[in-house]
Amino acid sequence: MHHKTIAELATGLERKEFSSLELTRACLERITRLDTRLNCFVTVTEETALAQAQAADERIARGAASALTGVPIAQKDIFCTKGVRTSCGSRMLDNFISPYDASVVERFNAAGAVMLGKLNMDEFAMGSSNETSFYGPVKNPWNTSTVPGGSSGGSAASIAARLTPGATGTDTGGSIRQPAAFCGITGIKPTYGRVSRWGMIAFASSLDQAGPMARTAEDCAIMLQAMAGFDERDSTCVDRPVPDYRAALGNSLEGLRIGLPTEFFGEGLDPAIASLIQDAVDEYKRLGATVKEISLPNMHLSAPAYYVVAPAECSSNLARFDGVRFGHRCENPADLADLYTRSRGEGFGAEVKRRILIGTYALSAGYYDAYYLKAQKIRRLISEDFRRAFEEVDVIMGPTAPSVAFEFGAKSADPIAMYLSDIYTIAVNLAGLPGMSVPVGFSNGLPVGMQIIGSYFSEDRLLNVAHRYQQATDWHTRAPAGIAD
Ligand code: GLN
Q: Which of 78, 92, 117, 435 has minimal Cβ neighbours within 10 Å of its Cβ?
C-alpha cells in the first residue's frame, strides 16, 4: 500500500479496496518502525489521525468524498495546528500549542485529509540541510549519512521513505524544491500569493510561500487544488480563480518553448547533474518541445540580494518571540531586559541568531539605503530578467541544486557554502514566480532534480509539463532500498 500515490489511494478508497482507517494505520506503523532512523516527524498525531480516518470513512460511505478524503498527509511543523504542538523546528516554540489552524491546515481538514503529524524542518525554515533543527537533523533515506536538504527536509524524506504519500512544505529561497531534489520527489512552490500564508509562521514575508510535496506531479496537482485560493486573512493572497490543475495534466507539449539560461549551466554545477538535465531536455524534445538558450543576466546577484532581504524581514518577524506572550521563557528573569535577552538567547539557535543580527544591521539607520533598498532594486532587475525571458519561452529549465545531497557537517561550518545550495532557486522567490522540482535521475546513487520555472500563475502549465515527463520516464517511481522497498 505504501507505494501507492495519492491518486491511486483515492481510487482505492473510493472503490472500498481498503478503508482510510486501514491506510492510516499502515502509515502510522511505518512511521513507528522506520522514523527512529530518519527523524522526519517532530510530532506524530496518532489519535487524531485515527479519528479523522474514521470520519473520512463515514464521509466516503455517504458518497461525499473529495479527492483527498481519507488520504493521509503530514504537515511541515511551520503550519499552526490547533491543539497540537507547532515548533517550527525551534526550542523557542518547543512548548507552543497553537490555538488555531493555519489556513492550509483548515483546507486539508475540509477536504477530509488525515493528518499523520508534524514534520521536522530547519529552525524557522532557515537552512538547506535540516541541520539547524532543534530536534536534530532528518536523514536522507537514500543514504542516511547525507542531508535531506532543507528547510522542508522532514517533508521530502518522509515522502521518499513512503511514510506519507504527501506533505506540505514552504519555500522562501528553495525550501520545497531543493529537498525535493535531494530526496528524489516532486514539489512545487506556487506563485507568491497563490496559497494563503495565514497561520504559517513567518520567516521572510515577501518571499514565503507554501506548496505541496509528493511523489508525482499529479499528486501535487491534487494537493495544490485543496491548498490554493483566496483568503482574506492574508492581505498578500491573490483573489483569482483556481484552475482545475488535474484537468490540465494531460495537455500536449507539442510546441512547448523551453528556455535554458546560460547562467544555470556555468561554473559550480556538478557535470553529472548538467548531463542528466540535458537528458531530460532531450526527452522534452521527443515530447514535442523546442529548446532555446536564454540569458538571465542578473542571476549572480540573487543570493547576495536574498541574504539581505530574507534576514531583514526575519529580524522583524522574529521580534515577536520575546518570552512574554508565547514560546520559551527563561527561568527567574531579573528584569525585563534580562527576560528578553535570556529568553531569546536560549530559545534561538545559532543560524537564527546570525540572520537576526544581519537583518537588524541591514535595516539600521544609515545602512538601510546601502543594503535593503539596494537589494530591493536588484530584486526588480531579476524580475525584469524573467519577464523578458517569458516573452520568448513558456518555461525555463535548469538544475534545482548545484550538487546532490551532501554529507552531514560538510557545510555547516561555512554559512556561505550552505547558502549557495540555493543558488538556482532563490531568484524565483525574489521574483515571486512559481517553480517546481522533478526527479530526473541519479548521480552516485543519489537523486537529481530538475527545476521548471514558469511565469506568474502558470502552476497548471508547470504541473502539466512535469506530468507528461513522468508519464514518459520512471525516475519518480524509484524508492530508496532498505527503507521503502
Ligand atoms: N536555504 C534558504 C535559507 O536558508 C531557503 C530557506 C527556505 O526556503 N525556507 O534561507
A: 92
The verdict on the CB of residue 171 being under 6 Å from ligand 1 is: yes
pLDDT of residue 485: 82
Find out whether the beta carbon of 126 lies less than 6 Å from any atom of ligand 1: yes
How far apart CA 281 and CA 261 sit, in angstroms, is: 13
Provide mean pLDDT across the span 436-442: 98
Catalytic residue status for 139: no
24 lines ligand 1 (CB under 6 A): no
In the annotation, is 411 catalytic? Answer: no
User: 152 pLDDT exceeds 90?
Assistant: yes
Is the pLDDT assigned to residue 401 strictly greater than 90?
yes
pLDDT at 376 (0 to 100) = 96
Range of the domain at 30: 1-485
C-alpha–C-alpha distance, residues 75 and 81, integer Å: 9
Per-residue model confidence as pLDDT tens digits over 8-46: 999 999 999 999 999 999 999 999 999 999 999 999 999
Going from the Cα of 103 to the center of ligand 1, the distance in angstroms, rounded, reads 22
Residue 114 CB partners (closer than 8 Å, separation 6+): 20, 24, 49, 52, 53, 56, 70, 71, 72, 73
- The CATH number of whichever domain residue 252 belongs to comes to 3.90.1300.10
Report strand pairing: 257-261 vs 395-399: parallel
pLDDT digits (tens, 9 = 90+) for 72-130: 999 999 999 999 999 999 999 999 999 999 999 999 999 999 999 999 999 999 999 99
User: Which cell numbers in the block locate residue 10?
Assistant: 483515492
pLDDT band for position 326 (50/70/90)? confident
3-state SS assignment for residue 123: helix
Q: Is 151 a catalytic residue?
A: yes
pTM of the entire structure?
0.98
Instruction: Count CB-CB contacts under 10 A for residue 409.
Output: 12
Q: Rg (Cα) of the chain, in Å, rounded?
A: 21
Ligand 1 pocket residue status of 155, Cβ below 6 Å: no
- Best substitution site from 128, 206, 351 to test ligand 1's pocket, by max atoms within 8 Å of Cβ? 128
Structural domain total, the chain: 1
Q: One of 4, 76, 118, 411 is an active-site residue; which one?
A: 76
